Amino acid sequence: MRFLGKLLDRVEQIFVGLALLAITSLLFINVILRYFFSSTLSWAEEASRYGVVWIVFIGASICVCKGSHIVVDALTAKLSARWQRPFALGVTFFSILFCCVFTILSLRLTLRIAEFGQMSTTLGIPMLYVYGAMPVGGALMTLRYAQQAWRLLRGKETLT
After folding, report:
1. CB 136 within 8 Å of CB 58
2. How many distinct structural domains can be found in the chain?
């Protein structure tokens, strides 16, 4: 189980890193082409936008794993040590529920987009691939919150 978690960590991080590198390179090349050769890659900005969509949703999963999401801990700080872990567990279960609902609804939307056969304007790719970032990211966040809940239940998760 730990091996799969670490593998998922690496895959997410490599994906986000490579996507960011590709977007940066693509936009840099497009700027060079525009200013020095009076030409552009017509599809570069659209591809970059779609890449950022994927980075955001995969990055959200990474943030769940690392505990990097913004947290308002005013209530948690006021609780006694005895109640902090149960409260954190409740918040984590609520997050799992939210991510499950988000994943299901975004999957429905993605399937509907696929059913209509909507294509991107410049790239000409099915919008299914763009909208697919939502259910994939939602499922990954659900998995990450489930891992966090498991660690909280076992007493392995540190409360900050």
Report:
1. yes
2. 1
Q: Is residue 47 part of a domain?
A: yes
Spatial separation of the C-alpha atoms in residues 34 and 49, rounded to whole Å: 18
Tell me the residue ranges of DSSP E strands in the chain.
none
Tokens of 105: 């609804």
124-156 pLDDT, tens digit each: 999 999 999 999 999 999 999 999 999 889 887
Q: Dump strand ranges (E) for 1-146.
A: none
**Backbone torsion region of residue 113, taken as left when φ is above 0, otherwise alpha when ψ lies between -120 and 50, otherwise beta:** alpha
Query: Do the domain assignments include residue 35?
Result: yes
Q: How far is CA 67 from CA 33, 45, 115, in A?
A: 40, 31, 37
Q: Which two structure tokens, joined as six digits, stand for 37?
A: 């050769």
- Does residue 112 belong to any structural domain of this protein? yes
What is the pTM assigned to this prediction? 0.88
DSSP string, 12-31: HHHHHHHHHHHHHHHHHHHH
The C-alpha atoms of residue 56 and residue 92 are separated, in whole angstroms, by: 21
Q: Let me know if residue 160 belongs to a domain.
A: no
Does an H or E element contain 125, and which?
Answer: none
59-94: pLDDT as tens digits: 999 999 888 877 777 777 788 888 888 888 999 999
Containing domain of residue 42, as a range? 2-154
